[in-house]
Design goal:
The chain is mainly α and 317 residues long. Helix content is 53%, strand content 5%. The protein is built from 13 helices and six strands. Strands 3-4-5-6 form a four-stranded parallel sheet, covered by helices on one side. Strands 1-2 form a two-stranded antiparallel sheet.
Length: 317
């Protein structure tokens, strides 16, 4: 994950500053020059089947400033792995999804063509797609966009990324923060086919809490209150937007309605990002594990339902 090397200012820098930053890129390591890069990428008409792309000098400049150090770092890591692994196989994935700035089609082309030119081989790439991919909840479009319109925009953009990946690779397109993105799974599966890679992990913990809400409601109430208290601090390293004030008053909910809080956007996300604090608390950790061990079938039941929702869109036909 070379996300720390992404320069998001490249999207809006004026020409003079853009040129200055481009000149400061590690051209020796990149084994090229700025004029050569511009000449190579602007003279070619890229044919991706359903569409063609001809990059402008400005697009190349912005792509290089934004992702040039990403390419350099990734190639450096790739060469290190080759040196250490010898004849042993390994998979390399490069992800730039943890940014605010979307990866444009010209930027995708820049990343792939430059990595190939430098001899790197990778199995998957995780661009920053259009829309919001927050932790533990479904896909959301850009702020102020209705979901239906957002899904259409995502589909158009993603189809073009798939075409680039097929032509310049093929390599998989990774969907990071992929847990619970149920709205886009059908589109993602249909367009990417065998080039699918969904990265999902942490929401099995949330389903454990769903089981706890049924097994030990008092413990679940205490965990939720604790999570809401710690959310402001624990959210710092995540792209999230839950508002604790919008979580239903747990004191007004009967036990049989507690599991429904795991379907509430604000409660679910607050519980998700505070998992470390909850499990670090000795009382919560001990009681939670004891309850799950004593009621394995309840936990297995919610897990099976949850995993089936994730997998079924990718198993059609």
């Amino acid at each position: 994950d070379p996300g720390d090397h992404v320069d998001e200012s490249a999207d809006t820098l004026p020409a003079a500053q853009l040129q200055e930053k481009a000149g400061a890129l590690p051209w020796t390591f990149l084994e090229t020059t700025l004029p050569d890069l511009i000449a190579r990428l602007t003279k070619k008409n890229f044919d991706f089947g359903d569409f063609r792309l001809k990059l402008t000098e400005e697009q190349v400049l912005r792509a290089a400033v934004k992702y040039g150090r990403v390419v350099a770092h990734t190639v450096k890591m790739y060469r290190h792995l080759v040196d250490r692994m010898g004849d042993r196989a390994f998979d390399l994935e490069m992800s730039v999804d943890e940014t605010n700035s979307v990866t444009s089609l010209p930027e995708h082309v820049y990343i792939a063509t430059e990595m190939k030119r430098l001899g790197a081989r990778w199995v998957s790439l995780a661009p920053r797609y259009v829309g919001r991919f927050e932790k533990g909840v479904d896909y959301m479009g850009p702020a102020g966009t209705e979901l239906e319109a957002a899904l259409e925009e995502f589909g158009r953009d993603f189809a073009s990324h798939v075409a680039i990946a097929r032509t310049l690779g093929p390599y998989k397109l990774s969907l990071h923060s992929g847990s619970d993105k149920f709205s886009i799974y059908p589109v993602y599966s249909r367009l990417a086919g065998e080039l699918v890679h969904v990265k999902t992990a942490g929401t099995s913990y949330l389903e454990a809490l769903r089981a706890i809400s049924r097994i030990n409601p008092a413990l679940f109430r205490d965990i939720l209150c604790f999570a809401l208290e710690h959310y402001a601090v624990d959210r710092a390293t995540y792209h999230v937007s839950a508002e604790p004030s919008r979580v239903p008053d747990i004191g007004q909910l009967p036990n049989e309605e507690l599991s429904g809080l795991l379907d509430n956007f604000h409660a679910r996300q607050a519980l998700h990002v505070t998992f470390g604090s909850v499990l670090h608390d000795e009382r919560f950790r001990t009681e939670l594990y004891d309850a799950l061990r004593s009621n394995e079938e309840v936990y297995y039941g919610v897990l099976e339902e949850h995993f089936t929702r994730h997998m079924s869109p990718f198993c059609q036909g």
